[in-house]
Amino acid sequence: MSKKYFLAGLTSLFFLSPIAGHANDMLTVKTIGMELARDIANEAVLECRKQGYQVSAVVVDRGGNLIAALRDTLAARFTLQIAEEKANASVFSGINSGEFRDARGDIQQELNHVDGVIIMEGGLIIEAGGSRIGAVGVSGAPGGDKDAACAMKALEAVEERLEFAD
User: Which residue from 99, 64, 58 is spatially nearest to 81, judged by alpha carbons?
Assistant: First the structure.
């Protein structure tokens, strides 16, 4: 092997290496879009309304940023805040807020002092195409289990869109 080919090979290895090329400087991530977030919030509110509950539903992206919020006509003002904090608890923990509450009852009170997070049932993770893209939180029904059920029905209503997301 000549010195010329050796240097060419060494040079190409240098330029192809992750250190030299900074291959991990940029990441491509999936996150929820406004239209899907709006539809999930709407479906959750409508599902609870069918059951006689006036609720708010909030959808946040994978970073906990508010994307969509909807309060039914007679839902209490504070249900918006609680719904968002339930969704944030799901983003924070990576699991549904009720599961997180049950798993970490030992530190629930401490976690409830984290700004923007409340450890109550009613927040569900939103996944699409194998990626966590956000979370939905519902508040206002008489019990977190009912909030979670409305959120689950909303996710079921958009299930095809989540399954076939690219």
Answer: 58
